[in-house]
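User: I'm curious what two different proteins look like when written out as structure tokens. Can you demonstrate?

Assistant: Sure. I'll show them one after the other, since each token string lines up with its own sequence. Here's the first protein:
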Amino acid sequence: MFSNTTREGVRLFGATLVSLAAITMIAGAGAMARVGVTSGAAGDPLGKPPNQNERILRIGIDVQANELITTAANDRAHLVFLDGSSLTVGPNARLTIDRFVYDPNTQKGDLAINASKGVLRLVGGKISKKSPITITTPASTIGIRGGITLISVAANQTISDFIFGVSMTVTAGGVTQTATRQGSQIITSFGDPPNPPTLLKQGSLTGALQQLEGGSSNNNSPDQSAQSSGFSSKNSGQPSTTPNINQAPRISTTTL
């Protein structure tokens, strides 16, 4: 029979093995850190995961946590995250997926993106139904609940267009502006607080949408290739294209 000391040693050894196995599993999961997939592409959009080589984001290529996404003048990409959120990246863009956490059981999580330039369209998935998705730009921090938001990022200004959803907040200089109805725009200049929301004018999104939907040499836009791939069906159920906002309702705003 084993002595009490021997039994205790065996128990501790077993616990150590379990702990080591758990650490190994966590490390392995962290190393992979898959947060989504490339569901559409035009041109040669690039992705660089941490400590890995840069590669072209073709349809079906996984997107990793903390991955740097860049596009040139003829590049576009459509990404679908594990919670169903989707992000269309226009040309001449640069962004990093700062944070992605998602529990499919509770359908809660956190998605944060840092964008330094370019035009982006976010369609919120399950995360945005319960907490805001955050996009940080040089001029402002944007919080998005549900629906569709179009963001144009430059070094000196960020234009945030709330197309559809629950709410959009824009914060800068200690001031927060909030829009709760579709068809609103908030402009923030670098170093200044965000302007109050204004109604979008007819045709005001044409330039940004052309950047997002302009095709490559084979005339396939990222939206078209996303629909063809089937990955886009995993998003929040919102259309990948922008709804008509010509009859935009009034805007509800809050300034903090």
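Here's a second, unrelated protein for contrast:
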Amino acid sequence: MIKNESFGLQNKTKSVVLTLDDFRKGATAPTEVTIGTTPTISAYHFDDVNDLMTVHVVLPNDWNRSYDLTIDLIWSLSVIETDTDTLDLNIDYVIIDKESTGKGIGRTSTNLTPSLTVTTAKGLAAGDIYVTSITIDKDDASNPFTSNSIGIAAEISLANTTGVAEIDFISGCINYTAKP
């Protein structure tokens, strides 16, 4: 993981960059592939329903828990898509709290399926890049941020495909607001 930061007038937005090595393949695993010609890069190829990967991140100490988190996932389309091809991603996450009973990995997860349909009818071709941005609500009923919150664990799976939809996961980042 690499930290990037940008400075605004009032708040600092920082990112924790997630490489492919930060993700673990699940029981139904996406296939490891290389894409591109020069350079070639590693990716996880999602083409079957239930292809699954997980990630867990401890956020830096300057994370301001008063603001939502944003997760950006970077994908490359693997095949030429048509207007009727879609990929529906399923994301379950938990906020991890330290020193709090029932607030770790085993707590009830929050599911973000409805907001994560990757629509490929945007004129994108095979090899084009697509970014999925996910907002993690600081006040979520099951996973609110508290003063004991130290990070996030997430499971990302392919819930549905329509047509010949296929996509390669490249990398991502977690964007957070830093304490002043």
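A detail about the second structure: The longest strand covers residues 149-162.
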